[in-house]
Amino acid sequence: MRRMLAGLVLGSTALIALAPNAGAVESEPVAPEKLELRCRKAVVVVEREGEVHRKLVVGCRWSKSTSEDFHAYRLVRKVDAQPRMPVLRSDDQDRQRFIDRRVRAGHEYTYRLVVVNDEGKIIGLSNKAVVTT
Fold first, then answer.
1. Residue 73 backbone phi and psi in degrees, to 5
2. Number of folded domains in the chain?
3. Could you give the CA distance from residue 108 to residue 41 in angstroms, rounded to a whole number?
4. pTM of the shown model
């Protein structure tokens, strides 16, 4: 913290004036917490009314955020060249997995996990995890 002080002593009274930026705190930008994200495709077998169905899914796991400013995880997904879309928002800091059941064969899915504080500022970021189905 940098403060500029100017002082003047008159008799037994000291006058101190603070410069205009005296209350400002200068700090370096803090790099976001780095999280590890791993995603892979899988086939889930589901039995319904005596029939067996196979369903393609993508399962994602990530390292837990340790930030004291944690507010929520946001997992975003990009399909092929389409824009990114959120697929998960969770305020459970202990949550570390997600199963994406909205996938189809023949596409490339790119996932990225973001951690935000209560102001919506990004305070954590994962690597990109790419899955081709």
1. -90, 145
2. 1
3. 11
4. 0.75
Residue 23 lies in a domain: no
* Alpha-carbon gap, residue 75 to 37, rounded angstroms: 10
Range of 52's domain? 33-132
Residue 48 inside a domain? The answer is yes
CATH number where 119 lies: 2.60.40.10
pLDDT tens series, the chain, 133 aa: 334 444 444 444 444 444 455 555 555 557 899 999 999 999 999 888 999 989 999 999 999 999 999 999 999 999 999 999 999 999 999 999 999 999 999 999 999 999 999 999 999 999 999 999 9
Tell me which residue of 58, 67, 82, 59 sits closest to 114, measured CA to CA: 67
